Amino acid sequence: MKNSILFIVFVSFSSILLGQVYEIGVSVGGSNYVGDIGRTNYIYPNRPAGAVFFKYNWNPRMALRATYSYLPIQGDDVNADTDFKQNRELNFKNTIHELAAGMEYNFYEFDMSSKDKTWTPYILVELAAFRYKSAQAEPQPGEYVFTNKTSYAVPIGVGFKSKLYDALAFSVEAKFRYTFVDDLDYSTPSIPSLNFGGTGNDWYMFTGFSLIYTFGRPACYTEGL
After folding, report:
1. Where are the transmembrane segments (predicted)?
2. What span, in angstroms and rounded, lies between the C-alpha atoms of 81 and 60?
């Protein structure tokens, strides 16, 4: 009896996996940051960036998604819109490595096997962990010691996706990450020369284009359409 139950569970689970459509993709575009240095435009990509992702289509409206992103960021007071920052002349560069997981929600049903459900705008809500460099000490004036630090962010995004050809699709997407730290630009009250941080936490963003490949047998929800 126990073996029969295990067999039924195994067959049911296998059917669920085989009956879904999966997607893998690569994104290319640009990243930027908003914090205490430089510009404060939330969509202003100024460094080349990219990502790879995997999606599990739960139904035509929702997909579960996991993403790794490589996101260089920089800021320069020369490009700021205030005299205070321009006279201060601070600048920095950092690199963010991010792992994110969350849900993609389509405004319209999206089904690659259908003839009339092949495009939709969507929103994206995720949780993310990211790694970056943080300033730890200043042993000599103007010389800093850095360490790798891990923190968390809440990414939200908007996008548009459409079928391209056969199993290929594309998307255009903008994602905004609110972090729980204020030192992406190395600002820290523990080092006097880097004590320029404000009262708000930093943001980082990605804007780009994705090419998506769909694989797996058409899901059961597409049958009969």
Report:
1. none
2. 44
For the purposes of burial, counting CB atoms within 10 Å of the CB of 31, is it exposed (0-12), middle (13-18) or buried (19 or more)? buried
β-bridge pairing 91-106 and 143-165? unpaired
Report the alpha-carbon distance of residue 81 to residue 76 in Å, rounded.
11
Where helices occur in 37-133 by DSSP H, the ranges are 83-88
- Cβ neighbourhood burial of 97 (10 Å; 0-12, 13-18, 19+): middle
Q: Which domains does the chain have, with CATH numbers?
A: 24-222 (2.40.160.20)
Residue 64 has pLDDT above 50, yes or no: yes
User: Which position has the token pair 């459409």?
Assistant: 162
* Alpha carbon 96 to its chain's center: 11
CB atoms within 10 A of CB 12: 9
- The Cα–Cα gap between 151 and 159 comes to 25
CA distance 142 to 89: 14
Backbone angles phi, psi at 221, to 5 degrees: -70, -10
pTM: 0.85
> How many Å apart are CA 203 and CA 184, to the nearest integer?
9
Which percentage of the chain shows pLDDT scores above 70? 87
Instruction: List C-alpha distances in Å: 206 to 4, 43, 134, 188.
Output: 50, 8, 21, 25
